[in-house]
Amino acid sequence: MFNNSSKIMFLMILMTGTLIAIxxxxxxGAWMGLEINLLSFIPLxxxxxxxxSEASLKYFLTQALASAILLFSVILLLLNSNLNFEPNNSFxxxxxxxxxxxxxxxxxxxxxxxxxxxxxxxxxxxxxxxWQKLAPLSLISYFMNNWLLLISIIASVTIGSLGGLNQxxxxxxxxxxxxxxxxxxxxxxQINQSIWLIYFLLYCLLTFNMIYYFNLFKISHxxxxxxxxxxxxxxxxxxxxxxxxxxxxxxxxxxxxxWMVIQYIVMNSQLMLLLIxxxxxxxxxxxxxxICYSAFMLNYLENNFMNNMLVNKFTMNSYxxxxxxxxxxxxxxxxxxxx
Length: 339
Fold this sequence. Notes:
- The protein is built from 15 helices and no strands.
- By secondary structure, it is mainly α.
- The chain has one domain (5-338).
- α1 runs antiparallel to α2 and α3 runs antiparallel to α4 (89-104).
- GO terms for molecular function: NADH dehydrogenase (ubiquinone) activity.
- Pfam families: NADH_dehy_S2_C, Proton_antipo_M.
- One of its GO terms (biological process) is mitochondrial electron transport, NADH to ubiquinone.
- Residues 24-284 form the NADH:quinone oxidoreductase/Mrp antiporter transmembrane domain.
């Protein structure tokens, strides 16, 4: 991607579109930022193969539908404020929220997301799961205590955990994991604005760590994880520890944002929501641990050394540093409170 000047240009436009949407002081400005973001991501998706063409068409149709609903809702809102036209305000807010949930890929508007991920490269998947969620989530954070948001939280954590149980494709597994984390982020939004941003940043770090590894060794399916005969055992341990960190298993760094959300939910006495979140988090951890158990316990061919010809030294060192942060970050976090 970074050797192609046109892709760098579209990446810059994509980032600009997101920043316009976040910093807009009107819904029309936010819609414009989302449109710029959408139209700059489609050229990034095209990799001259059938799967990427299909994925870009699916993405365009879904996002165009969400944008049309958002624009229609904004026009209704303007009519309501300027011309004393009296549609139901709660109905308008529900329409705006549903369009933003569709844009972010949250359940029950998630059906396009796993299928789309299947046709993307790992680099584009990373952009879709991290940066592309920033603008819709920032706009969703304006809706507090909305019943549709609560339904979406429960649906996202449930579908995100159950959907990943029978997946063999790592892209779909990461997509359902992303939907599950979206539910946690929207829960954090209802409690505190800064908590969901911390959650989002840590989620981006952990997702980048996993996708960096998958892209490095060109891994797309579970059976490739099991039979990685060209990768040494320590590297396998690092990869699966990162996977468990993404799932939120203590004492890894991925547990820290969930710990914060759980603490604030308990303080707000939303115990029923907490029960649903924790039960679904256990299901997510179950299929992550099942993958790790299968990879380590079954007798596969593997090396006791790392072949230095596969990747260069800088790439491997940067991955190991990121893995160290992901695995041991939780231990060093308390130090910041005493500095």
